[in-house]
Description:
Elements: H1 2-18, H2 22-35, H3 40-52, H4 56-69, H5 74-86, H6 90-103, H7 108-119, H8 125-138, H9 143-155, H10 159-172, H11 177-187
Amino acid sequence: MKEQRYQKILKQVHTLMLKQEWQKALDEIRLADIEFPDTTAILTAMGDCLIHVNKPESAVDCFKRVTELEPDSVEAFNNLGVVYMFLQNFPEAEKAYLHALQFMPGHAQTLKNLAFLYYQQEDRLGDAATILAGLVRSTPSDCEALYLMGQCYEMGEDSISARYCYERILVYQPNSTEASDALNQLMGK
């Protein structure tokens, strides 16, 4: 009976999150946390909601607790890295991502997040490009990695390579307005 209640609550919260009703989802998940304390799914959902209601500093505690409960979880440390990036705490974000990659070195989302972290630091642009090149080599259709790689090339003033990345995105996603816009902006330079 308790398991059914738990599943029902998670489904309700998930529905609210899909509707982007973040405050309602947060209110529900906080009640669930009282009933089901130290549950990683609840803590993770709470952290996600806190980020979306612009309280990332409160989300840190949720994600830290998840890493304590699941010390070998790639997702837990990846989420912790994300919240640190929201807070512009780049050293802690990098630590969390690198910790996650110890468990699964090829975890694509963590690698993309780490590349994005490096992209935000001008002196780490080369590190971002190296990570993204590896991702694109292993999954040539990874449009998220291609787009960020194009952005790195633009920052490095290599418009030919940036153009190539955006054009490749349009091969895989012909209706990508993001890639079309980036390409049009690049061509206008």
